[in-house]
Specification:
By secondary structure, this protein is an alpha/beta fold. The chain has two domains: 7-125, 3-Layer(aba) Sandwich (Rossmann fold), CATH 3.40.50.2300; 134-229, Arc Repressor Mutant, subunit A. It contains eight helices and twelve strands. The strands form three sheets. The chain has a five-stranded parallel sheet with strand order 2-1-3-4-5, sandwiched between helices. A four-stranded antiparallel sheet has the order 6-7-8-9, with helices on one face. A three-stranded antiparallel sheet has the order 10-12-11. A hairpin with a 2-residue loop joins strand 8 (148-151) and strand 9. The longest helix is centred in the middle third of the chain and has 18 residues, at 109-126. The radius of gyration is 18 Å and the shape is globular. The two termini are 22 Å apart. The structure holds calcium ion. Calcium ion (CA) binds next to loops.
């Protein structure tokens, strides 16, 4: 049995996939309940409490996006989308609606539990306490109060834009952020959706932090969707 006690609601109409998910999560110590339609999911969320939502976007009765929008009106609970391959637009849309992460079918139990563990950790941070003054991933460290970045113990000189980008990624370690979301946060809401400036900023930042910028170990590109700072 694992160390987690969070309750996961699995919303998935394919019963085989649903039982696979619940089996894998229970093995890790999560408690798990299943809903097979969107309506069932919404009433379950109202009547019983769940900490983490695992949501298939292709449901028989409802668009998964409407469920995300509904939940976000009253809860910050982690939402992980489960979606078919090659639906990048759909995934990006769901992330922009407020989902936190996604899994592409077919996925392994290892991949599934890793993502749910990240969600559980974010959840415990949502729970309160003062925001952390610093965070690190491998040799990369950020100090929010001093606005400083260190790489392998040395101060890393960043531009204000690079710092904003890195700070956003560090506040969402392990989570995928859509390009649209990053652009809104770093450049502001009026900037539009041109990803070219983001790609240029990312390339510059990677040249500073990655030993081999072409095969990054810190910031991973989620093709067609956005970026993720690895969770170690
Ligand atoms: Ca489905």
């Amino acid at each position: 049995m694992g160390q987690f006690s969070e309750r996961v609601l699995v919303v998935e109409d394919d019963r085989q996939i649903s039982s696979f998910i619940c089996y894998a999560l229970k093995n890790e110590g999560f408690s798990c309940s299943a809903a097979y339609t969107g309506q069932e999911a919404l009433s379950r969320l109202v009547s019983a409490s769940a900490d983490i939502l695992l949501l298939d976007l292709g449901l028989p009765d409802m668009d998964g996006l409407d469920i995300i929008t509904n939940v976000r009106e009253w809860s910050e609970m982690p939402i992980i989308i489960v979606s078919a391959r090659d639906r990048d637009m759909e995934k990006a849309k769901a992330l922009d609606c407020g989902a936190d992460d996604y899994l592409t079918k077919p996925f392994s139990a290892t991949e599934l539990t890793a993502r749910v563990r990240v969600a559980a950790r974010h959840l415990s941070k949502l729970g309160g306490g003062a925001p952390q003054a610093s965070r690190s991933v491998g040799g990369l460290q950020i100090h929010f109060d001093r606005r400083l970045v260190y790489l392998d113990g040395e101060v890393l000189h960043t531009t204000p834009m690079e710092y904003s980008l890195l700070s956003l990624l560090f506040k969402n370690i392990g989570k995928v952020l859509t390009s649209g979301h990053i652009i809104r946060e770093v450049w502001g809401a009026g900037y539009g959706t041109d990803t070219q400036a983001l790609r240029a900023l990312m390339a510059g930042l990677r040249r500073k932090i990655e030993k081999v910028p072409a095969t990054p170990r810190y910031i991973i590109t989620e093709t067609g969707i956005g970026y993720r700072l690895v969770d170690e």
